[in-house]
Amino acid sequence: MSDFVKIFDTTLRDGEQSPGASMTVEEKVIIARQLEMLRVDVIEAGFAAASEGDFKAVAEVSKTVKKSIVCSLARAMPNDIKAAGEAVSFAKKNRIHTFIATSPIHMEKKLKMKPPDVIDAAVTAVNLALNYTDDVEFSAEDAVRSDLDFLIQIFGEVIKAGAKTLNVPDTVGYSMPLDWGKKIKMLIEKTKNSDTVVWSTHCHNDLGMAVANSLAAVASGARQVECTVNGIGERAGNASLEEIVMGLKVRNDLFGCKTNIDTTQILKSSRLISQVTGYQVQPNKAIVGANAFAHESGIHQDGVLKHRETYEIMTPQDVGWSANRIVLGKLSGRNAFKQRLEKLGLDISSDEDLNLLFQKFKELADRKTEIFDEDIQALVSGKEKATECYRLESLVQESKTGSKPKAEVVFFHFGEKIKGFGIGNGPVDATVKAIESKVKSNSQLLLFSVNSITDGTQAQGEVTMRLSSRGRVVNGVGSDPDIVVASAKAYLNALNRLESEPRINPQQP
Ligand code: KIV
Ligand code: ZN
């Protein structure tokens, strides 16, 4: 058996199914470029049939990415396969990933289909997909709660039809490593012609076992793992890419497997995803959390200073925590800025965009002496898009002990200048009230969080605001050295996202 494990990244598809994490076409393209630098084998760019925007995103990612395979998800339905096939047709290497649910509860309650009809639909979908590409993957959704014999039967049929990768998902995060490993082993042993395909796993994290289950699957013969950067995804998320990759690398003695990932790109990828989606990484998160390599106690510090390996099983540099993170300052010129953007994989194609970003960089450098890579990434993620309806112009805010804070916010709505006033319980409340006094969105604030992008009191604050309105949930992100300004940007960013076109979830009935 090969010792190579393919990393199938689904941040842009399953990751995007996290509440509020929907991304614009431009954001997806930026992330896809970074995933290519990370050297993932497959990028699942979206679910092309979900909406025009999703189709465009998959198509644009397909046009941009050259080294990784670009894939679109498709339900086992003719229209989905057509949309997926057309959207990935622009890619140098492409794949269609089709799926249907196979558990009794999903077949009866969601699909309202009998098992033989589910097999027919799966085989028809694989056949249709083969008209567009010879790289077809099939997933048995909710495999974890599916009958083993039925899985063996349906997998055998789709192999016969020509599927090249068979994915076994733990859709609801129910499994434990011991039984998941056994299930994968049985499937590989008992499915006819199983040695002609790549076996894959896709685990959700509802019981905190997604990474452990994925690694158990590798130990049992799976040679593709589906995962997301930072483990983002529906509910408790998906298996985290960085933990799987470093698990396989650090414990090569156990698995004897390698991946193609450039691990030094891990941290940069993690930062980009959290800045775009508003899903911030908890400090104690393995590999990419702020404390992942911090040695707090005196005993540990002493040990690490004497001999690093006393308390460290990998180096921070292995995953991209570099010692020299100060990159630019007030005196840096346009060329240095452009080169840094390129080094960060943030290719800004138009001169107009570059000039605008350089102006923002200069404004930031006037307020903050050291500009780090993370600040530059935040500038790019926060760059105003031509299609945006709302944009912040200025903010005046007054807070005094003993009286209620006030805010005056000036913003543009499709080019029209609007001024709103608000009084609130705190400066952020006053700011939101000032915006709402004019917008009247009737949205509900579900989450408000502030994170500092880098260290020190000069650091930019990164604010996430999750809004819900008319059944839609979106995350807005804003960054600025002034956290009230960052909050105003985040709120307006969320309002912009509420204006975007609604999309369907491939897994909902
Ligand atoms: O969790 C799941 O089952 C999925 C499939 C569509 C692969 O995301
Ligand atoms: Zn999933």
Walk me through the structure.
The protein has 509 residues and is of the alpha/beta class. The protein folds into 4 domains: 6-277, Alpha-Beta Barrel (TIM Barrel), CATH 3.20.20; 293-319, no CATH class; 334-381, no CATH class; 390-499, 2-Layer Sandwich (Double Stranded RNA Binding Domain). It is built from 17 helices and 16 strands. The protein has helices at residues 25-38, 52-64, 78-87, 104-111, 115-129, 148-161, 177-190, 210-219, 241-250, 252-255, 266-277, 298-306, 334-343, 351-367, 373-381, 427-439, 483-499; strands spanning 6-9, 42-46, 69-75, 94-101, 136-141, 165-170, 198-203, 224-227, 326-328, 371-372, 390-400, 403-413, 416-423, 444-452, 461-469, 472-480. The strands form 4 sheets. It has an 8-stranded parallel β-barrel with strand order 1-2-3-4-5-6-7-8, surrounded by 8 helices. Strands 11-12-13 form a 3-stranded antiparallel β-sheet. Strands 14-15-16 form a 3-stranded antiparallel β-sheet. α7 links the parallel β6 (165-170) and β7. The two termini are 38 Å apart. The structure holds 3-methyl-2-oxobutanoic acid and zinc ion (ZN). Residues 14, 169, 171, 202, 204 line the site of zinc ion.
Strand and helix map with partners:
Elements: E1 6-9, H1 25-38, E2 42-46, H2 52-64, E3 69-75, H3 78-87, E4 94-101, H4 104-111, H5 115-129, E5 136-141, H6 148-161, E6 165-170, H7 177-190, E7 198-203, H8 210-219, E8 224-227, H9 241-250, H10 252-255, H11 266-277, H12 298-306, E9 326-328, H13 334-343, H14 351-367, E10 371-372, H15 373-381, E11 390-400, E12 403-413, E13 416-423, H16 427-439, E14 444-452, E15 461-469, E16 472-480, H17 483-499
Helix pairs in contact: 1-2, 1-11, 2-3, 3-5, 5-6, 7-8, 8-9, 11-15, 16-17
The structure holds 3-methyl-2-oxobutanoic acid and zinc ion.
